Amino acid sequence: MATIRPIRPRSDDPLALEARAMDNLRYIRKTMEGASSFTAVPGWGGMMIGVTALVAAFITSLQPTAALWLGVWIVEAAVSGLIGAVAMLQKARKADTPLFSQPGRRFALSLAPPLAAGALLTLFLFRAGSFAVLPGLWLLLYGAGVVTGGAFSVRVVPAMGVAFMVLGAAALFSPAAWGDIFMAIGFGGLHLIFGAIIAWRYGG
């Protein structure tokens, strides 16, 4: 008489189980990454940018021509961009998070258009010989970029952007001679204040 054996479900292939588990982990990681905030905005780097901006504001106040004045601020913008990029990279490495995560890419893509618009308008106004509106324009557009980029970061970042926009609006309707003062208050003072807040509350 033949032996009757119970039918047992065939166990899954261990390799297939591992592959499904890795797919699930990738999905979970991607979902969490998309829902998280971009936290690599540098506090200490922002404070360093504030210091260089104060130095630049002092130097520009001594320049005899508008072209030299603009040249100093262009150099300051390049230095600030380098400081910000290095500080972001260091903070991201310290936190063991990718700099160009989904929130990081969204932050960069939201920040870039207002800055690009500011660069083009600066070229146009330079060719037109209209320098008086540049401080207000720079502060306003930089603030707009920080607000839009800050939507994917911690709350203090868009708040900083709003402060820049308010200061930029005030500069546009103030005497042209106050331009360096507004630049010092904005790119110098606001970066120092909000940089200190970010460094204290969000790990550097």
What does this structure look like?
- With 204 residues, the chain is mainly α.
- The protein has one domain (41-201).
- The chain contains seven helices and no strands.
- The chain has helices at 14-35, 43-60, 66-94, 102-128, 134-150, 156-172, 179-201.
- Helix 2 (43-60) runs antiparallel to helix 3.
- The longest helix is centred in the middle third of the chain and has 29 residues, at 66-94.
- It is elongated and about 70 Å long.
- The protein starts with 13 loop residues before the first helix and ends with a helix.
- Residues 27-35 have low confidence and may be disordered.
Short summary of the structure?
With 204 residues, the protein is an all-alpha fold.
